[in-house]
Amino acid sequence: MSELPNELRYLETHEWVRNEGEGIATIGITDHAQDSLGDVVFVELPEVGQVLSAGEEAGVVESVKAASDIYSPVSGEVIAINDALEDEPETINNSPYGDGWFFKIRMSDPAELDGLLDADGYREVAEG
Amino acid sequence: MGYRTPLFDRHRALGAKIVDFGGWDMPLHYGSQIDEHHQVRRHAGVFDVSHMRVVDIAGDDARAYLRRLLANDVDKLKMSGKALYALMLNPEGGVIDDLIVYLLAADSYRLVVNCGTAEKDLAWMAVQAEGFAVTIRPRTDLAIVAVQGPEAIARVKTVLDDAAAAAIDSLPPFSAVAMDDTFIARTGYTGEDGVELIVPGDRVVELWDRLLAAGVGPVGLGARDTLRLEAGMNLYGNDMDESTSPLEANLGWTIAWAPEEREFIGRAVLERQRAAPARKLVGLVMESRGVLRAHQIVTSDSAEGVGEITSGTFAPTLGVAIALARVPVAFAGVVQVDIRGKAVPVTIVKPCFVRRGQAVINHA
Fold first, then answer.
1. B180: alpha, beta or left, given left = phi > 0 and alpha = psi -120 to 50?
2. What residues form DSSP beta bridges with B279?
3. Closest residue by Cα to residue B58 from B108, B131, B125
């Protein structure tokens, strides 16, 4: 089965979120998601400064197989996006939890993290 | 569990992602579909296409039967080994299947038909055979591998015996030769040079292993689709089906109108459509970011009606999205595709994007 770090929180829609501390969170898509999508060829990211609500559409990832919406797991302001993905979208396939991150957000309500799935919960949803 | 080719265990050992394809468990890719695509455009790759069905047709009436059954004319095959791309139509002029027919010997032919349509094809062929002295023999005992790419011929020659290697050297495109139990055809579905090898199912694993040892990379059906689409080749079920006229699928060139007295199935309807088909199959190129996909809607500022993408993809060789789309005949130049509610401009081009590794985009 695919890699599923225990320290992350997850959405049913296959995003992960890492609590970086000091109210900052990093968001990406799971190993399972990149594997299901196949080679990623484009990614549309939110804009820095954009304010997102938890569950709001934050971008699109397009693979050879399908287009998939990306949702923000938490509310807050986007403070950084991973520009390198524009030229090297395959990074999402090669390093979904590392260099393949999508964006960073300054959380307006870090308690939202507690309502998200943990690794076991996500495994049940994603991989049955 | 679906049907499996003799190479199934090899695919799994190579780490293939296995998917259902027309009832068969087939490799989608072995890690990266895009890397496999480039492997074929730049070097040489091998596909297991044993799910496709070989059908041998022989008998005193084999020629007459196929001249009735197929919209292309097997009389164009003047020498044994020559191949012809042909459509099998229904009486309404719709496409039952597309196939390749080889002349093996006088009144002896080999057809290779699609996997998803094979049972339907055989049922139709049996019905149409009434009154003809022919035997129709599905060859489920055979396996097929396609070796494609600029280095394909050189590498295949190293895994066959000297006589077979010499035969490949003198094998013109779209021709085949039978060497013992290896049927070698200089055909393919990628826009690259290469061969398709038809061998007994119990010999294909050894052949596969030797090809891989010779530096030919394994390629899954995912890359097969992006390669054929870059080459502008239709896929049955996407770009045409039983409700599609070949005249609206960029396949008019496969209809042998002459001689006029040849009454192939579907001819009467096609004769009526011939003067003024309502739609055409075109190529689309999108310069902006994103991917074109089947069933997206195409509109034009300067012409009435709507079209629809029949096959779309990201083209790895070109780095942009391309598509085949069936559109009203008046569509030309720049048109729009609806991508998740956004009208994105795309350019209509001749439906061939890449040949022999090079971009060949011609504005229509």
1. left
2. B328
3. B108
Interface contacts (A, B; CB < 8 Å):
37
**Residue-range domain boundaries for chain A:** 9-122
Mean per-residue pLDDT, B96-104: 98
Task: Work out the burial of residue B179: count CB atoms within 10 Å of its CB; fewer than 13 is exposed, 13-18 middle, 19 or more buried.
Answer: middle
In 10 A of CB B129, how many CB atoms?
A: 19
Residue of A44, A60, A64 with shortest CB distance to B313 = A64
pTM (2 d.p.): 0.94
Q: How far is CA A90 from CA A29, A33, B32, B132, in A?
A: 13, 13, 10, 56
Instruction: In whole angstroms, give the CA distance from residue A25 to residue A44.
Output: 19
Residues 14-33 of A with CB under 8 A from B: none
Cα–Cα distances in Å, from B209 out to A36, B48, B159, B231?
28, 12, 10, 28
What contacts B208, CB < 8 A, 6 or more positions away?
B7, B10, B46, B48, B145
What is A9-122's CATH number?
2.40.50.100
Q: What is the number of alpha carbons within 13 Å of residue B204 lying toward its C-beta?
A: 27
Residues of chain A with pLDDT under 70: 1, 128
How confident is the model over B292-348, as pLDDT tens digits?
A: 999 999 999 999 999 999 999 999 999 999 999 999 999 999 999 999 899 999 999
Q: Please give the order of strands across the beta sheet that includes B217-218.
A: B176-179, B182-185, B194-200, B142-148, B45-48, B217-218
The answer to whether residues B139 and B43 touch, using CB atoms and an 8 Å cutoff, is no
Buried b (16+ CB within 10 A) or exposed e, B130-155: eebebebebbeebbbbbbbbbbbbeb
Residue A120 near chain B (CB below 8 Å): no
* Residue B77 burial (CB count, 10 A): 20
Decide if B23 contacts B3 (C-beta within 8 A). Answer: yes
Residue B166's CB: how many other CB atoms inside 10 A?
A: 13
Which residues touch B94 (CB under 8 Å, ≥6 apart)? B241, B242, B243, B244, B245, B266
Res A128: pLDDT: 66
Q: What's CA B189's distance to the chain center, in Å? A: 5
Cα separation, B248 vs A8, in Å, equals 52
Share of chain B above pLDDT 90, in %: 96
**Which residues have CB under 8 Å from B272's CB, separation 6+?**
none
Q: Write the CB contacts of B85 (distance below 8 Å, at least 6 apart in sequence).
A: B72, B98, B99, B100, B254
Which among A35, A41, A93 is the nearest to B291, CB-wise? A41
Q: Which residue has the tokens 């012409």?
A: B303
Please answer yes or no on whether A93 and B33 come within 8 Å at the CB atom: no
Residue B361 has pLDDT above 90, yes or no: no
